[in-house]
Write a sequence for this structure.
C-alpha cells in the first residue's frame, strides 16, 4: 500500500526480530565451540539410540494421532448422530492436559503394582511377572500412545475444518459416478484433506520432539532428554548445544515438510459450499458406533485422567491446599499474563509494519520472529542463557568501571530470562492470530484513513485496534495457556527458588507422588479449558 | 499507552523484587526442603542470622558457574558426593579454615584442601525379598552372577547414587572388570532401569524382582510413611561386601561458594551444621548416619545393626566419576 511509512516503524520491526532470534544465533555459535570430546563420546555410544528413539516416537505419535483423529473429524464434520454438537468441542479438551500427567495416571493404573494387573493376577492366580505377559507402559510404545492421546486434537481440529470446507457438489458428483460413501471418502475427501493433515502431523511431531517430561518419566531417552542430561550430567553446555543443533535440523526439516504440504492448499479449497443438510444421516447402528467411538476417545484422553486427578486432589486436599499452592498459582498466572501481554504488543508492532510497509523486505521481521516456536523448551533455555549472561556481565562491568556496586544478575537471576524465553517460543502464536485477523480488514480502510490525514499511529490506534480486538484476545489467550503449561524451559530458567504450577507438579510426578500435586495439576487443566472453549466458539462462528 | 506503561512497571517490579533481599545468607540446596528447613530455623534462632534456602534438583553447579562472581550463593548443600566434587572440579568453592569443623568431622570425610565437608553418610544397600530370598550375605560383585538373572531392580544407572557405586567398583576392581560386571548386572535386570529407590522396593514387594539397589535412609523413611510401610516391611536390608572391603557409602555434604557475599556468616552456618544439634536432626529427620563420631544414629537406624563401611577415601570416587558415566553409556545400561 502507498504510505509514507517512517523508517522508524520498519527499524523497530527489525529490532524486535533480532532480539527474538538472538537465542537461536547464540545456540548455533555455541555449538561450533570445542567441547572436550563429550559429543564424540556420546556419538560413539548412546546418541544413535537417542536419535532413533526421537524419530521413531515422532513417527508413531504422528500415525497414532492420525488414526485417532481422522474418524472423529470425519463423523463430526460430515455425518449426523446424537450429541454431535457437543463432541465438536469436547474432543478438543485433551489439549488442556499436560502429557506427563496423563502418563502418570496411566502408569499408576497399568504398572505391575497397579490395580489393573493386580486384579488380573487375582483372577487368574498368577504369582509372578513370569506367569503372564503384559505390555510395559513405561516404554517407547507407551509414550507414543500417551502422546497420541493428548496431541490428536491438533489433527482433529484441522481435519474437521478441512472436511467441512470440502465442497458438497464434488462429493455428490463422486456419488453420482457410482462411488460408495466409503470409496468417495478414500478417493476424494481424504486426499483433499491431505495438506491439512500434513500440517497437523507436523505440529504433533514438533510437540513430540519438544516433550521432555513424559519421555523422562517413561525412561525413554530422546534427543530432548539427552540435551538436558548432557548439560547437567556432563556439565557441557557446548555438547548440549551441538545436540540442540541436531534437534533443530530435525524440527526445521519438519517445518519444511509442512510448508511444502501447504503450498498446494489453495488449489484444493476454492469454494466452500457445505451446508448442514448435506450431512450423512447415520443408521442407528452406525450412529451408535460413531457415538461410542467419540465417547471412548474423550473418556481415555480426558475424562479418565481428569477424574483420577480429582480423586487424588480430594484425598490429599489438606496436604496440597497450602500457601505454596497459592504462591505457585499466582506465579504461573503472573508469568503467563506478562508473557501474553508482551507477545501481543510485539506481534502487533510486527504485523502493523508488515501491513502498512510498501517494502517487500518488511515481511521479514514477523517471519523471523516466528521461528522461536520451533525451539523445544530445553534447547531454547540454552539459547536464552548464553546472550543474557553476557549482557548481565556487561552491565556489571560498566558499574565496576564507574566504581559502583553492580546490580548483580539483573536478567538471568530474575524471572526476566523465563519471560523472555516464553515470549520467544510463543510469539509465533500471537503473530499467527493477528495475521488471520488482519486478513479480514480491507486495505481500503487504511487508505481512507490516511487520506483523512491520520498518522500511522492513529491508524493503528483508531482503526486497526478496534477491528483486531477479537484476534488479539484469542492470540493472547492461547499464549497464556501455553505459558501456563510450558515445562522444560521453566525447569531450566526459573530463578532459583521460584516455582510455578508446571514445575511444582512435575516435581511431584518425578518423585512418583502426583497425588500431592493433583490440585495444582487441576488448576493447569482448568485454566487451559477456558481458551479452548473460546477458540472453538470463534471457529464455529466463522464456519 | 497506559497498557504499555503498566506492563513496563510490572516488569520492573518483578525484576526488583528478585534482586532485593540480598542481606540474608543464601543457601543453594540439592537436599529437600523438609530436611533442611527445620535445621536452618534452629540456626537462625541461635544466631539471629537470616537464611534463604533455595532448592533445586538439578543444575546448581551449572547455575553457579554461570553466575560467576555475581552469584548470590553462600553455601551449597549437596545430596551426594559427586555433586560436591563437581563443585570442586569446576572451581566453584573456596576453602574454609575452621577448627570447629575440623574437630567435628573426621578427616576421611573432608578434603585435605578444606574445600568440602561431608555431613551425613548413607549406605548403598541391597534390599532382598523377605519371602523369596530372606536376608542374604551378598557382595555387589554377585549382582552379575547368573543365578540372579531377571531378579534385580534398580533406578537409572546415570543417577548420581548409582554412578558413585560404579565409581567405587572401578576403584576396587578396575575399569575392564567393572565393565564386564555392569554388562552382567544389566543382563540380570528384571526391567529397564526406571523410577526412584522407593519404586525398586515396591517392585520387590510386588514380586517383580527379588533384589533391589537402594539407599539406606529410604528404608527408614518408608517405614515412617503410612502408605509405604508395607513396601519396606516386605524386604530385608542387607549390607553388602561385609566379608571383604565393606559396603559402599556415599555422603551428603557442604561447601562454601567461591564468591560467597557473606563469608563469615556462611562459615558460622557451616560450623553449626557439624554441631551435635544439627547432626542429631539430620539423623532423626532423614534416617542418615551422622559423620560426627560421637553422635549416635537414630534408634530405628541403629536397629538395622552394625556394618562395615568401605574405607576407600571419598575423593577416590571423584577420580573415577567420569569413567563411571562413560562406562554406563558404553554398556547402554539404561537402554
Amino acid at each position: 500500500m502507498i504510505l509514507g511509512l517512517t523508517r522508524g516503524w520498519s527499524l523497530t520491526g527489525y529490532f524486535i526480530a533480532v532480539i527474538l532470534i538472538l537465542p537461536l544465533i547464540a545456540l548455533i555459535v555455541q555449538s561450533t565451540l570445542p567441547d572436550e570430546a563429550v559429543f564424540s563420546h556420546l556419538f560413539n555410544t548412546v546418541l544413535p539410540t537417542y536419535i532413533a528413539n526421537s524419530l521413531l516416537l515422532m513417527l508413531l505419535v504422528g500415525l497414532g494421532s492420525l488414526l485417532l483423529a481422522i474418524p472423529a473429524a470425519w463423523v463430526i464434520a460430515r455425518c449426523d448422530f446424537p450429541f454431535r454438537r457437543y463432541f465438536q468441542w469436547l474432543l478438543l479438551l485433551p489439549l488442556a492436559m499436560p502429557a506427563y500427567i496423563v502418563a502418570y495416571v496411566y502408569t499408576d493404573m497399568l504398572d505391575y503394582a497397579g490395580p489393573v494387573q493386580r486384579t488380573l493376577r487375582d483372577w487368574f492366580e498368577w504369582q509372578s511377572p513370569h506367569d503372564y505377559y503384559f505390555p510395559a507402559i513405561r516404554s517407547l510404545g507407551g509414550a507414543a500412545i500417551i502422546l497420541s492421546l493428548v496431541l490428536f486434537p491438533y489433527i482433529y481440529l484441522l481435519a474437521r475444518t478441512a472436511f467441512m470446507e470440502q465442497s458438497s457438489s464434488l462429493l455428490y458428483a463422486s456419488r453420482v459416478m457410482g462411488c460408495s460413501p466409503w470409496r468417495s471418502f478414500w478417493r476424494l475427501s481424504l486426499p483433499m484433506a491431505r495438506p491439512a493433515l500434513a500440517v497437523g502431523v507436523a505440529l504433533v511431531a514438533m510437540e513430540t520432539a519438544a516433550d521432555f517430561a513424559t519421555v523422562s518419566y517413561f525412561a525413554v531417552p530422546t534427543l530432548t532428554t539427552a540435551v538436558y542430561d548432557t548439560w547437567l550430567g556432563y556439565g557441557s553446555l557446548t555438547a548440549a548445544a551441538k545436540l540442540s543443533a541436531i534437534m533443530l535440523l530435525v524440527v526445521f526439516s519438519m517445518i519444511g515438510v509442512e510448508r511444502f504440504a501447504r503450498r498446494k492448499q489453495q488449489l484444493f479449497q476454492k469454494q466452500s459450499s457445505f451446508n448442514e443438510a448435506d450431512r450423512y444421516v447415520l443408521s442407528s447402528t452406525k450412529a451408535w458406533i460413531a457415538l461410542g467411538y467419540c465417547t471412548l476417545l474423550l473418556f481415555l484422553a480426558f475424562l479418565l485422567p481428569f477424574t483420577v486427578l480429582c480423586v487424588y486432589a480430594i484425598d490429599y486436599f489438606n496436604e496440597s491446599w497450602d500457601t505454596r499452592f497459592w504462591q505457585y498459582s499466582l506465579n504461573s498466572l503472573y508469568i503467563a499474563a506478562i508473557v501474553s501481554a508482551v507477545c501481543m504488543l510485539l506481534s502487533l508492532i510486527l504485523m502493523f509494519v508488515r501491513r502498512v510497509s510498501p517494502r517487500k523486505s518488511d515481511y521479514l521481521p514477523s517471519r523471523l520472529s516466528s521461528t522461536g516456536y520451533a525451539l523445544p523448551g530445553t534447547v531454547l533455555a540454552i539459547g536464552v542463557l548464553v546472550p543474557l549472561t553476557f549482557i548481565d556481565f556487561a552491565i556489571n562491568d560498566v558499574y565496576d568501571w564507574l566504581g559502583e556496586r553492580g546490580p548483580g544478575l539483573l536478567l538471568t537471576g530474575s524471572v526476566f530470562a523465563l519471560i523472555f524465553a516464553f515470549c520467544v517460543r510463543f510469539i509465533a502464536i500471537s503473530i499467527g492470530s493477528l495475521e488471520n485477523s488482519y486478513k479480514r480488514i480491507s486495505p481500503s480502510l487504511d487508505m481512507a484513513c490516511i487520506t483523512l490525514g491520520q498518522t500511522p499511529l492513529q491508524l493503528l490506534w483508531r482503526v486497526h485496534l478496534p477491528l483486531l480486538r477479537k484476534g488479539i484476545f484469542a492470540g493472547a489467550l492461547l499464549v497464556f495457556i501455553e505459558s501456563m503449561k510450558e515445562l522444560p524451559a521453566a525447569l531450566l530458567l526459573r530463578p532459583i527458588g521460584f516455582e510455578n504450577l508446571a514445575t511444582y507438579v512435575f516435581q511431584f510426578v518425578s518423585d512418583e507422588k502426583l497425588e500431592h500435586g493433583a490440585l495444582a495439576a487441576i488448576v493447569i487443566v482448568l485454566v487451559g479449558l477456558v481458551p479452548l472453549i473460546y477458540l472453538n466458539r470463534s471457529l464455529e462462528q466463522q464456519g | 499507552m497506559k497498557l504499555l506503561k503498566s506492563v513496563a512497571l510490572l516488569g520492573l517490579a518483578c525484576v526488583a523484587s528478585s534482586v532485593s533481599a540480598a542481606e540474608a545468607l543464601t543457601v543453594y540446596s540439592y537436599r529437600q526442603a523438609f530436611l533442611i528447613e527445620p535445621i536452618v530455623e534452629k540456626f537462625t534462632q541461635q544466631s539471629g542470622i537470616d537464611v534463604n534456602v533455595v532448592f533445586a534438583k538439578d543444575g546448581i553447579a551449572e547455575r553457579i558457574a554461570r553466575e560467576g562472581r555475581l552469584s548470590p550463593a553462600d553455601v551449597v548443600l549437596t545430596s551426594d558426593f559427586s555433586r560436591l566434587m563437581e563443585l570442586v572440579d569446576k572451581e566453584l568453592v573456596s576453602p574454609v579454615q575452621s577448627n570447629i569443623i575440623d574437630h567435628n568431622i573426621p578427616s576421611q570425610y573432608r578434603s585435605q584442601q578444606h574445600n568440602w565437608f561431608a555431613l551425613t553418610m548413607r549406605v548403598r544397600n541391597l534390599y532382598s525379598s523377605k519371602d523369596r530370598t530372606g536376608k542374604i550375605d551378598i557382595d555387589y560383585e554377585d549382582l552379575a552372577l547368573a543365578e540372579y538373572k531377571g531378579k534385580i531392580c534398580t533406578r537409572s544407572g546415570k543417577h548420581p547414587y548409582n554412578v558413585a557405586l560404579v565409581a567405587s567398583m572401578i576403584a576396587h576392581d578396575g575399569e575392564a572388570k567393572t565393565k564386564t560386571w555392569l554388562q552382567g548386572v544389566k543382563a540380570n535386570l528384571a526391567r529397564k532401569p526406571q523410577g526412584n529407590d522407593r519404586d525398586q522396593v515396591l517392585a520387590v514387594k510386588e514380586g517383580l524382582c527379588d533384589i533391589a539397589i537402594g539407599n539406606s535412609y529410604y528404608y527408614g523413611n518408608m517405614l515412617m510413611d503410612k502408605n509405604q510401610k508395607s513396601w519396606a516391611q516386605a524386604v530385608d536390608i542387607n549390607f553388602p561386601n561385609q566379608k571383604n572391603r565393606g559396603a559402599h557409602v556415599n555422603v551428603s555434604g557442604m561447601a562454601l561458594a567461591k564468591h560467597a557475599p557473606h563469608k563469615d556468616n556462611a562459615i558460622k552456618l557451616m560450623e553449626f551444621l557439624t554441631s551435635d544439634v544439627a547432626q542429631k536432626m539430620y539423623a532423626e529427620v532423614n534416617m542418615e548416619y551422622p559423620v560426627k563420631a560421637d553422635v549416635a544414629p537414630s534408634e530405628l537406624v541403629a536397629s538395622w545393626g552394625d556394618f562395615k563401611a568401605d574405607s576407600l577415601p571419598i575423593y577416590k570416587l571423584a577420580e573415577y566419576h567420569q569413567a563411571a558415566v562413560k562406562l554406563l553409556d558404553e554398556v547402554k545400561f539404561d537402554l
Confidence is low (pLDDT under 50) at residues 11-21 of chain B. Residues 2-19 of chain B form the longest helix (18 residues). The radius of gyration of chain B is 21 Å. Chain B touches chain A through 55 residues (CB under 8 Å).
